[in-house]
Design brief:
single chain; 16% helix
Length: 76
Amino acid sequence: MIDIQQLEEGQQVYIIYRNPHTQTVSTIQEATIARDPMNPGQLSLLLFDFYHSIEEDDALFNSYEEAESMFEQFYM
């Protein structure tokens, strides 16, 4: 997992994303670390053309394989 204090704008990360409409469905998605347009001093996740705040308990990964390994531990 990535330490969120080490994130840099433009960095590509992978997250385990829970579908907000179907809570039992989760997938691994690629996201970009970007400046939040509403709060330029804050980094956020750019995912599906939306900015999401980065929380302390978010699990961000450097590679799809890392995310997949964690996904399999918790969801399979």
